[in-house]
Amino acid sequence: MTFAGFDLSDELAALANLVRDFTAREIVPAEAALGPEHRSIPQPVLGDLRTKARQVGLWCMDAPEEYGGGGLGAFDSVVVWEQACKHRFCFPIAGGGVFGHTPPVVLYAGTPEQIDTWVRPAIAEARTGFSAVAEPSGGTDPKRAIRTTAERVADGWLLNGTKMWITHADHAEYGVVYARTASGISAFVLDTSTPGITITPIPMMRDAWPFEVRFDDCLLPEDALIGEEGHGLTLAGAWLSKGRLSYAARAVGVAEEAMRLAADWAAERETFGAPLATRQAIQFVFADARVAVDAARLLTWRAAWLADRGRPEARRAAAMAKLSATETGFGVVDQMIQVLGAMGLARELPLESWFRDLRAARLIEGSSEILRDIVARDELRGAR
Ligand SMILES: Cc1cc2nc3c(=O)[nH]c(=O)nc-3n(C[C@H](O)[C@H](O)[C@H](O)COP(=O)(O)OP(=O)(O)OC[C@H]3O[C@@H](n4cnc5c(N)ncnc54)[C@H](O)[C@@H]3O)c2cc1C
To answer: Residue 67: its pLDDT value, please?
Structure first.
């Protein structure tokens, strides 16, 4: 990997091209064939696409090789995810789940038995999991907001409480839940068939609705605890940085694709006797979008490059990347909808869906305010 010289290795460039071509050839037409009532790629379409993806080796690419994944590092992943999201349902997961569903990274901190029980089967059998931090009392400040409790009992842990806005909860077979224990916030892994779990959809502007997940006296086994008791939020930190890089890469990919679709339109569409692309007002929209998208991509690549090297500034860099890319992506998709006119809002194109997804992306995995807070902390050290 030669990010320092701005050249991608031949191997990474070939993988990114393979993912881009697969997405354009298989996922985009499959989505286009769905009626407007669909909010995700339904089974069995998803199953067929997954079989094809696995055949060409595009499966859980960012999961460790030793657990059955593709073993991509952070930098390779952001390059690949940018290409994997040039289709409608690329939120909440790039490829719409076609390339598998990599387990929550906190599970990698589990015991060998937990890895065998949760991680390997999730990759081998395409199982979906959820991560539940946020609650009715808030998501931005989980250290204070988490009210869900896990009480140590004779035969394990008794889980009680309510999680809010949880993605994938309706079809997840397992989940990671953060709960308050005697020594702080701890992470637990559970089977969603455990008695006492109630899952209720929360309709919202994004196609992929999140869910309320309620736990009433859910008895979890002793070995449900991940890592050390009280260390849950430290473990979640690793997941957040990875999640932020993924959001940043997808926002860049979507913005780039929205520009491509709008540029094709601007070249063809004529008003007052000339194509839109000949108007300076339209040209400046593309120029500004290009500057912003390239800047967001560079921030994303830099953050991933730092993450691969385990550098301490990687967390802040990931915050900058996600902030820049999601705010930019939202603005660029909005501008490209404007260029496309009414067609930009039509469900025939994916822009209206991306617009709604990117609006949500400015709150998920670190709201824009909390990301700014992370960045400002270093700028104003000592003055806060
Ligand atoms: C579609 C969707 C899917 C989601 N999926 C998941 C999931 O799978 N798992 C999960 O755990 N959570 C999930 N969330 C929850 C998400 O992480 C939270 O919405 C987010 O953390 C914000 O929390 P909140 O909504 O409770 O807002 P609050 O914490 O109440 O904050 C409200 C507003 O105030 C701002 N704010 C907060 N503190 C400050 C401050 N100090 N200074 C300035 N502004 C501040 C916030 O940025 C936000 O804009 C999802 C949310 C959505 C919308």
So the answer is: 97
